[in-house]
Each structure stands twice: as C-alpha cells, then as structure tokens.
Amino acid sequence: MKTFTLIVAILAALAFCYPNSAGAQSASSRKDSLVRIDSANTAGHTFTKVETESEFPGGTKAWLNFLNTHLTYPKKAVRKKIEGTVILQFIVDKDGTVTDLQALTGDPILREAALKAMADSPKWIPAMQNGRIVKSYKKQPVVFKLQP
Around 96, how many Cα atoms within 13 Å sit in the side-chain half-sphere? Predict the structure, then answer.
C-alpha cells in the first residue's frame, strides 16, 4: 500500500483566506463592501472585503499546524486515489467564532473531511473595518494530495 501525506496548502501567499469575491462578486456588492461604513450600519453586516482580515490565532504557521493535526485523509479517498482542493467558506463573527461553514468545491468525500476538521476550529481573531471589529466572510482552500 502506498503511503501518503496530506498537504495543506495556502493559496495566495499570506492571504490564506481570500475575500469572498474571487472575481465573481458583482460590481455593486464590491462597491458596497468598500464604502466607508458608519458604526450604526455595521451591526448586522457581514463584510466580504475588510481593511484587516481575520486570522487564525498564531498566524499561518499555527493554522497549518491545526489543519495538519485535525485533518484526516479519508481512507475511501486513498483507496480511490482521489485528490483535489476543497474550498471552505465560513464567517468569522465579531467574537472570533467560526459560523456558517460550508464546502463550496471539491470531491464530496474530501469536502466532508475538510468540514469535520474546520468544525473543531478555535476562535479566530476577527476582522477590522474602520477601526471596528466586524463579521467577515472567509474562504480557505484545503489541498488533498496523495504521494507515493
């Protein structure tokens, strides 16, 4: 049986969670995300673009360590030699809680494994907009790769 290693990759350098847009966001919603927001208007708003992105406590290295210890390559995927990238989307709430977790892309077997690992995530450091803590959308690619 071939041995394998799980490689969790962070795409786009330090922007390990890139904005919800990924080029598909409409011009009007991009404009709405970038306008200067009054404090009265931020209460229920979830941002897709922020001045300071939310981040995993401890940064990228801690995030990779978390994924490598909590993510399990599914045995069924190993048997079927399934590889690929799962894009997770979630919201980091004002208190750092991860909510509304969903897998947007990827093989269903890999999606389930990525969602299970992310469900155990500790609180994140929330995003900032105009000097205020805000809720924000995040997208996180998780790469599954088998190696001989």
Answer: 8
Beta bridge partners of 86: 142
Using one digit for the tens of pLDDT, what is the confidence trace for 28-48? Answer: 333 343 333 334 455 567 888
Only one residue has tokens 């909590």, namely 70
97-121 burial, b at 16+ Cβ within 10 Å, e below that, comes to ebeebebeebbebbbbbbbebbeeb
SS (H, E, C) the chain: CCCCCCCCCCCCCCCCCECCCCCCCCHHHHHHHHCCCCHHHCCCCEECCCCECCECCCHHHHHHHHHHHHCCCCHHHHHCCCCEEEEEEEEECCCCCEEEEEECCCCHHHHHHHHHHHHCCCCCECEEECCEEEEEEEEEEEEECCCC
Distance CA 88, CA 101 (A): 7
The string of pLDDT tens digits covering residues 60-100 is 899 889 988 999 999 999 999 999 999 999 999 999 999 99
